[in-house]
Write a structure and sequence with these properties.
The chain has 196 residues and is α/β, with parallel strands linked by helices. The chain contains six helices and seven strands. A hairpin with a 5-residue loop joins strand 5 and strand 6.
């Protein structure tokens, strides 16, 4: 795998007051939820995003011009459920392995992303599992004829990872370490406590 062939996609909602992070906002208020969303997206775009071993793409919704996104990196998510939007983005990328991160796991490091790309050497897919039954990262090798594993996934439930894995039955899959998405007030407090 060459550095040019690797694609890192950060999936995010536009960091705007009242857009996204609704469960978090219900616990900590709109301003604090916006502050977290902006800081988390900025950290991911700067830290793992600026590594020369892969190309960064930002898939942001709603689909409107993004004056704060570097030219050539923005991809519109479009409509549909998360699986439909992931499929659209992954099909729009040039050939090569892809790793997709959500923007609500600010603990992700360059080492985590590098480990995901390494795992795609012998495996068709790699996941970063979350304690809630979802995942903070999915990586796909995207070989010829390989489909995407998003049909019928029950998104935003404790079954999201299990459903996606079921779609990959018979494929070699690797798991990274579990990390927590920051979806609500208690998760935000735990993250802040760990940061010290």
């Amino acid at each position: 795998m060459t550095a040019r062939a690797r694609h890192l996609v950060i999936f995010a909602r536009r960091p705007q007051l009242g857009v996204g992070k609704r469960r978090l906002a219900a616990d900590v208020g709109d301003v604090e939820a916006l502050r977290f969303a902006r800081a988390a997206l900025d950290r991911l775009a700067r830290t793992p995003g600026r590594d020369p071993r892969w190309r960064l793409w930002l898939a942001v919704t709603p689909d409107r011009p993004l004056d704060w996104v570097p030219a050539g990196t923005a991809l519109p998510q479009g409509s549909g459920d998360l699986g439909q939007r992931l499929t659209r983005i992954i099909h729009a990328l040039p050939p090569g392995p892809v790793v997709v991160l959500g923007s609500d796991t600010p603990t992700v490091t360059r080492a985590d992303v590098a480990a995901a790309f390494r795992a795609l050497g012998p495996n068709q897919a790699v996941f970063g599992p979350a304690p809630d039954g979802g995942y903070w990262l999915i990586g796909l090798r995207r070989g010829s004829g390989e489909g995407l594993p998003f049909d019928g996934v029950r998104w935003s439930t404790a079954d999201a990872l299990a459903d996606t894995l079921a779609n990959l039955e018979g494929c070699r899959v690797s798991m990274l370490l579990e990390q927590e998405d920051i979806d609500d007030g208690p998760a935000l407090r735990r993250w802040r406590a760990r940061r010290g």
